[in-house]
Write a structure and sequence with these properties.
With 399 residues, the protein is mainly β. It has five helices and 26 strands.
Length: 399
């Protein structure tokens, strides 16, 4: 090669020495971004470039006055301009597959066309087809695929080169919003069959209020007299809220979930003050003055050993005394505290609590005992006086 190049240079030197300087034609050479003129001295394009000191490769593009010629082509007599575009390495990522090319194309689109790739509308190309190639470059290309999108209200087909379902839906103008989802999922690649289903999801929230009733508390207080009561605090019901979520997919209810009951406002219990102050008073009875510390309105009935409402007679009491006048019965809760307590009932007289009334329908119900011979029927309201001495243990709040 070196020997041939020296021969060509020698021939050029002889030829040039035999011609007048003014008769040697000039040729402008554009070598990428360099422009200069040389004397035409040989007949072929390759020889002219070699004589101008320009190296080239088989992948370079050579144009003479705008026409593409091969290096071994004969230069036309009328040739005025030689342009050489050197090939540069391109990295082409075609649908994820990487390859390296040598290209002398002026633009990205031309480089793809030269390699048998036709870019259609909807294809992904980065950089764009009109981007000039000025040096080594990486080109990413994905051809568009046909997809069919089905939703509750529509069916459309579209061309897309998106990588994922979500990107394809956004390009088609059907983006997923809120809790919407797609089949396959939005982060999945496009399916081979191109079918995508969009499910529209809505959710409604309902609130159900529930009133929580308050309770009544009793607080003992020395500020009030025994058996007197006062309202210390007004009760207020509490408030709880249950939140229920209903999920709809494409307009159809699919499930319900409850967040559970949340307390919004706690209850405020009613507080009743019950007096514990003992005040001694005197009653002018037929038997004479009687000192008492408590007086309670009661409904009185009467009984005798053979008037118990059962087919037998009973002469004893729960407290061990004989059933006769001067013995009375009360409800069990009273009897637990009051067994043996001295009392007085107008029109009956003094008595001792020593029996338990069975089946009393009211808490303030007492039963007055008589013998069978002196029995007196009772069915009336009266007052039960609790006589002194005051016992050490008192039921302050009567049930």
């Amino acid at each position: 090669m070196k020997r041939n190049l020296l021969a060509i240079i020698a021939i050029l030197a002889v030829t040039t020495s035999c011609q007048p300087v003014d008769s040697i034609p000039q040729i402008k050479i554009i070598d990428d971004n360099k422009v200069f003129s040389v004397n035409r001295s040989v007949d072929t394009l390759a020889a002219e470039l070699i004589s101008a000191g320009i190296s080239f490769s088989p992948n370079d593009l050579m144009l003479v006055d705008g026409f593409i010629l091969t290096p071994n082509s004969t230069l036309p007599e009328s040739a005025t301009t030689i342009q050489i575009r050197h090939a540069v390495p391109l990295t082409l990522i075609n649908s994820g597959q990487k390859q390296t090319l040598q290209s002398n194309a002026f633009t990205v689109g031309q480089a793809l066309t030269d390699n048998g790739i036709t870019v259609h509308e909807g294809d992904y190309l980065d950089p764009t087809a009109s981007t000039p190639i000025l040096g080594p470059l990486t080109i990413e290309y994905r051809p568009a695929n046909t997809i069919a999108i089905t939703s509750s209200s529509d069916f459309i087909t579209s061309m897309t080169s998106a990588k994922t379902i979500g990107q394809a839906l956004a390009e088609a103008g059907i983006p997923l919003q809120g809790m919407d989802y797609s089949i396959p999922g939005e982060s999945e690649p496009l399916p081979e069959d191109g079918n995508i289903k969009v499910v529209r999801v809505d959710e409604s929230v309902s609130l159900v209020q529930k009133s929580i009733p308050f309770t009544t508390e009793v607080q003992l207080t020395t500020d009030l007299e025994l058996d007197q009561q006062d309202l210390l605090q007004v009760g207020e019901p509490g408030l709880a809220i249950t939140r229920t979520r209903t999920r709809y997919e494409d307009g159809q209810e699919v499930n319900q979930t409850s967040d559970g009951e949340a307390l919004v406002r706690p209850t405020k219990n009613r507080i009743i003050g019950a007096g514990t102050k003992i005040v001694l008073r005197t009653l002018d009875a037929l038997e004479g003055p009687l000192e008492y510390y408590r007086a309670v309105k009661v409904y009185a009935t009467s009984y005798s050993p053979c008037r118990l409402g059962v087919p037998r007679c009973g002469y004893g009491t729960a407290g061990g005394l004989k059933a006769q006048k001067g013995v009375i019965g009360v409800i069990r809760k009273w009897w637990n505290y009051m067994n043996g307590a001295p009392v007085y009932i107008p029109d009956y007289g003094r008595a001792i609590i020593s029996d338990i009334g069975a089946g009393f329908p009211d808490k303030n119900w007492i039963d007055l005992a008589y013998s069978d011979d002196d029995y007196v029927p009772w069915h009336s309201w009266t007052t039960l006086y609790f006589l002194t001495p005051v016992p050490p243990s008192i039921m302050y709040v009567l049930p």
